[in-house]
Each structure stands twice: as C-alpha cells, then as structure tokens.
Amino acid sequence: MQKHITIGVAGHVDHGKTSLIHLLNKKDHKNLTYRKVKTGKKRIYSDKVLVTPWSHSDNPAITFIDVPGHIRFSTNTICGLSFVDMAVLVIAANDGIMPQTIEHLNILNFFKVKKGFIVITKTDLADDEILEIVELEIEEIVRGTFLEKKPVLQFSAINQNGFDEICRTIIKEAKNIDFKNSDQFFRLYIDHVWSISGFGTVVSGTACSGSINSDDTLYLLPLQKKTRARFIEVHHNKVQRVFAGQRVGLNLKNVSFKEVKRGMVLSQKDTCISCLMFNAEIKLLETSETSLKNYQKIKVYTGTSKVNAVIILMEGKNILPGEKAFVQLRIKKETAILLKDTFVISLMNIQKIIGGGIILEITKEKFRKAKEKKIVPFLKAMLSENLKKIIEHYIEKNSNILICSMQISQKTGFTINKVESILMSKVNTGEMLVFKKDWFIEKKRYQDIKKRVYEIIKNYFLENPLEISMCITKIKNRLLPFSENLIIQKVIKELIQKGKIDKKSKGFGISNSAGVLSEKQQNLTSMLIDFAHGSDLMHFSAGKFCKYQKMSSKKDEVQKSLDYLHNHNKLIKLNNERYITNIALEKIKKKVENFIVTNGSLSISDCKEVLGYGRSRGVPVFEYLDHIGFTNRMGNKRILKE
Description:
Elements: E1 4-11, H1 17-24, E2 35-36, E3 42-43, E4 50-53, E5 61-66, H2 74-81, E6 86-92, H3 99-110, E7 115-121, H4 128-141, E8 152-154, H5 163-175, E9 187-189, E10 192-196, E11 200-209, E12 211-213, E13 217-221, E14 225-234, E15 237-239, E16 241-243, E17 247-252, E18 265-267, E19 273-284, E20 292-293, E21 296-302, E22 305-313, E23 318-319, E24 324-337, E25 342-347, E26 353-362, H6 372-384, H7 387-397, E27 403-404, H8 405-412, H9 416-428, E28 432-435, E29 439-442, H10 443-463, H11 472-479, H12 485-497, E30 502-504, E31 507-509, H13 519-535, H14 542-549, H15 555-567, E32 572-574, E33 578-580, H16 582-599, E34 602-603, H17 607-611, H18 615-627, E35 631-634, E36 637-640
Helix pairs in contact: 6-7, 8-9, 10-12, 13-15, 14-15
C-alpha cells in the first residue's frame, strides 16, 4: 500500500524555504511572487501556507508544506505545521539563527515531530568561518529537541551545491517515519475554504487518519452537520479514495460557504469530540518572559483552530518558565478535538509561542480543588500511556457509575480490545464483576452497595415505623450519587433471595422490622383499634374513620396507621382499603359456616341475613373469604372449601 507523508519546511522569513521547494520540483525559483514592504525594497516571503507535491518520490508519496516565516503570519505557520510527519528547518548562512527559527523549532517540538534535518541555505554568501559559527549556533538551539544529532546540510540555490544530498536525506528520513494510520477513522482539519461557482463549498486539509471514498458520509464539527463529498481531489487530481497523510480537497454537499471556517473538522460519526473543556499537561518554554497564573486568559492553537481560553491550574498558583503542569483549559467556543492531540499557546496580545502541551482528557466537568486527588493521578497515568494504571485510576475516578469498555476506549484513546482484555483479567482474578458482557464494577464496590441498600431499607423503617414498604425510587434517592439501575436491581434480587428483605406490593420491606412509634402515632393506632372493635362486623376505611371521629388527622396519616396495624396482624385488610378486627372476622366465618351448613350454599343476596348489611358492603367480605380459602365460589354460589 502506498504511504503518504507531509514534510514541513520551516524557518525565518527570507531564509530560502520557497526557493528550496521550487528547486526540488525543478521549477525556476527566480519566478517567485514578490511583495513590497514599506521601505520600497523587494523581498521574497510568503504570507500563506504553500502546498507542493514532490514528483521525485512515489512511495512514500511526499508533500511539502512551506510555512510563512514572518511573525505576522504565525497563525498560518502553526496551522501548516500541526500535522506534518517530518520537518526541514531552513537557516540562512548570512543571517544565522533568527527569532522565527527558534519559534518554528518550538512549534515542531510541541507537535511531537520526530524526524527531520537542517539545511543551511545561502552558503554562497558566507565563508567557512561564518558557516562554522552557524553550525555551532545550530548545535546549541537543537539540543534536547527532535533535531539533536540530525543531519545539518549546506545548500546554495545559486549554484545548487548540496542539492543532491538534500534529496537523498529526504528519502532516507522519510523511510523511517511512522506513517499516519489509514485503518483508523477519517479525520481532517480544515485549513482552507472556497466557494466555487457551479460546485459550491470546497475545503482542503491534510487527512490526519483513516480513509474515505467519494460520497461517504461525513460530519462537520463542531456543527455536527451531516454532509458528503461530491468529489475528492488530491493535488488537483480527481480521485475516488483518499488516505491518511494526503493533502485533500473536498466538495461538500449541503454545506454553505458561510457555515465553514478554518479550524473545523471533517470526521466520521462518533469519532471526534466537540468540547468546551479539556484537561492537559502544559510546558512553558524556558525562554518565556512570563509565568502563567491561575485563570489567566491565553490563546490555544490546536490543529488548524485558534481559540481563546482560560487556564485553570490543578497544582500550585503559577507555572514558571521551563516548568510543566496539569491544567484545565476552558475554551470560549466549541472546538472538535481528540485525545492526545497536541497544541501550542500564546498570550492574548502577543503573537509569540510561550508553551504547548498535550490533551489528556476531554471533559464536561469543571475542575475543583477537591477533585485534585482523583483527576491528577488519572492524567499522570494517561501521560505514561500505561493502560492498566489508566483503567485503575479511571475506575477510582468514576466509582459512582458502571464502567463500560467502550467509554474507557473513547476516554483514553486505546482500542476496545485492549481495554476489555485488562478488564476481563480483573474479572478472572475476582477483582471485578461483569454485566451484559461489557459493563463492569469492582467486586468490593458491589458488596459495599449491597450493604448500603440493606442499611437504607432497614433505617427507613426505623425512621418511619408506620410504613410497610419502601419504593425503589426512595431507595435510589438515598443511594445517590450511585444510581445504576442494573446494579441496584441485581442487589435487591440477591437480598430477596437471601431473605434479607421482602417483596411488597409497592416496594420492599424487612420482616419483623419495627421502629418506635411517636406518642401521636401511638394515640392514633389506639383510637383505630377501639373504633374497629366498636364497628364489630362493619368494616371501615380511613375516610370513614376521619368522618365519624371528626378529627384533625390527615387521611394519609390514618391510612399509614391502618396499614401498620394490618402489617402487625392487629387488623384484617379487605379489598378497597377496608379493615375489620380479627375477632370480627372469626364471627363472620362462624355465621357464614352455619348458614352454608343449613342451606347448602351462600349467595350475595343472603348478605343482609348473614351479616346485617347489604351487597355493596358484603362483597369485600365474601371475596376475602374466597381469597383465604374459607369458601369456594361456584358461579353465583359459595360453598365451604373442603
């Protein structure tokens, strides 16, 4: 499979970057575009990122990214260098190390570029002594960077000395590059937008990962807008499929020119995340003239986007030059990013890079000092890329939710297979329990929840002695912040199976659980017992009691007391929330038995003769006798059950 790489050509303004690229492509470097400056002199410098394929190499296919060397166009420079695989740092022999030389080197370093080399240009304008001084300067500034001990080549665009060596070095370095992965999902940061008559909106950028075919579904982020590519071009050639590493132009369907901005992302669904906050590690350059303070406003450059942000320090009160720190960045507008994306930062009013970092966690939760002990260890584990430690800290950090392998994969950037492998090893050793294949919880945490649920139910009845059951909603509310239905249901099922709790009609209870009634509750239950005995065979409801007693007690309080008395076998509960005493029920059973023995059966029309009241009041009594198995209904008749 053909590999595709991009090479960033960086360096100070007027140091010969564009001339070198033109020669690499056998073009006349003298025919470059000139821009007039205030002095009236002509200087050759580019204000935009220039993209040029290299015809000299087929596999890998190489594209040069020529970035502006003037500080006024630093935003364009950062965008151009954000996803390069390799870099050529250009330094003019007659100028030596200049401010933008160091700036570009810092940007490349923060963007984790690993391969590259250095070219000293305009050697025809310097003698051997000057060249030796420049090389010593280079050795000093690249110390500790990815360009340390990399080739330093001399070159002149006038006589083309050193040109062949540059070509050989490009090919040699390119072969050792870890290519962008075409097997992952597709992602492209937009760096240019056009409106072309007859076609509509066209965007371009470097494919960071994955591959797509023409007309595949894409999502424009952070708008979350669904679109398709009508056609795709690579270096102005129409193609059916593009791969990671290629410079791509796409004609977007159903997207207006006004909707698209540089810095937006084209991605496949559920791959890239649009966010307003992320946690990261930041390093401040040793050469920074300022420290960073908590809640300071800065500019953040990631991919091709530039956003204002507020920096929240997780440890300490400031970040000094040369120091690293974990921070939360709260950005002012929603931006599409991915874990492990790198970024650089500058102050709000100065176009100069002062530091950079790497995104370790995308979050919706504002950092608070109280959460430092959970968040910081997780970020340290993410930085170390030790998945086992990452998962352990993730579990600790999210102890109030079930752990899902897919969520961990999305949260950490590791594949689902790797995550599940570690989680299943913990299941096999008894550290974790698994639910429905991909949901996990620590066994110790599960046992704690089970104990907590039992205590919640037990304490509820001690606090509310009149209650006969506790509904599932009340259990969940008292169990917060843990609220996972899957676990709570399993816990309750196990508690019922072990006889710890009972299933009730409206919830759950504990056998023989009894709290101490208050004086008011004791008085009310005594009144109800007396009223029930006074009613004899006549059953009654809470409403009837309140009406006849003309008392101030609320009906629901009376109902709770009646249920309490029933639960403690002091009253019989019939249908329709009606009650009688145990003595009255025995009298009724005797009367019914005598009537059936004498007459052979009992019908509802016999109610008045047997009980002394009519059908409407008799039906609940007869149905209860059927329910307890005292009588047996056969059509409209009832007989004694054998």
